[in-house]
Design a protein that fits this description.
Elements (H helix, E strand, L loop, with lengths): L2 H9 L6 H17 L11 H13 L16 E5 L7 H7 L4 E6 L2 H14 L4 E5 L2 H4 L9 E6 L5 H8 L3 E12 L3 H13 L2 E9 L7 E8 L13 H4 L4
Parallel strand pairs: 1-2, 1-4, 2-3, 4-5
Antiparallel strand pairs: 5-7, 6-7
Helix pairs in contact: 1-3, 2-5, 3-4, 7-8
Length: 240
């Protein structure tokens, strides 16, 4: 059971406990069942989910090496959480983390609520809202250590939807595929305006996750009050 996940986790230096394995197995079963009526993911095969959802999420932990949060004592917001990836796999393994799963689609957050309860995950809040609006609420703005986003969008768009949530010194971690240099260069102005800087790009070397990398941004100054702009604008007109 979960051989690919367990093997990959060992390569990352992670020891999955029997209880965590039980949670991952149940998460898979609930995901596949709910996906029959809610469009959560196109990836449903047992092996594929282990590699392209669970392990892909856990690779984000490599970006926390040599940071104060390496052992999981942090606040994290998963922007556009969808099926709960990467937020739920990270929470399963780093149980001390305090996590917010954010999505604008009520059917998806209904699944997230169900999954969190079924898996017995504490210190997890599920929020149904647009990132562009939630980031202007004082309870969420510039309060998180980490923000993650797996959305298939331009990096400038993702920066506008994530950096406003991070406190100074916090990190944004964005999984990407393929060559990232040009996209990172195009997003440089947006990242700077939003109070961030490019910290590093970590290449991921895993079978099944070829050409994957993690773009890590650091929050260095407060985000100007006007950002993020109104819903839809970061996607429609990225800062350039």
């Amino acid at each position: 059971m979960l051989e690919s996940l367990l093997h990959g986790a060992r390569q990352l230096g992670l020891a999955i406990t029997p209880e965590q394995a039980r949670q991952f197995q149940l998460y898979y079963e609930e995901l596949v069942e709910w996906n029959k009526r809610v469009n959560l993911t196109a990836i449903t095969g047992y092996e594929e989910v282990q590699i392209k959802h669970f392990l892909d999420a856990l690779t984000l932990i490599t970006a926390l090496e040599d940071t104060p949060w390496a052992k999981g004592d942090f606040t994290l917001i998963d922007v556009g959480s969808g099926a709960g990836v990467p937020g739920i796999p990270l929470k399963i393994v780093l149980s001390n983390a305090r996590v917010v799963l954010l999505d604008s689609v009520a059917k998806k957050t209904a699944f997230l609520q169900h999954a969190v309860k079924s898996l017995g995950l504490g210190n997890v809040e599920v929020v149904t809202a647009r990132a562009e609006e939630l980031a202007h609420q004082s309870a969420y703005r510039q309060t998180f250590d980490l923000a993650v986003c797996r959305a298939v969008s331009k990096l400038a768009t993702i920066a506008e939807l994530t950096l406003p949530f991070c406190q100074n010194g916090g990190l944004v971690i964005v999984p990407k595929k393929g060559q990232i240099d040009e996209e990172l260069a195009q997003a440089a102005k947006a990242i700077d305006i939003l109070g961030g800087r490019s910290k590093e790009v970590k290449n991921i070397h895993f079978k099944g996750l070829e050409q994957h990398c993690l773009v890590v941004l650091e929050k260095v100054t407060p985000t100007p009050p006007r950002y993020p702009r109104r819903p839809g604008m970061p996607e429609k007109r990225p800062i350039s």
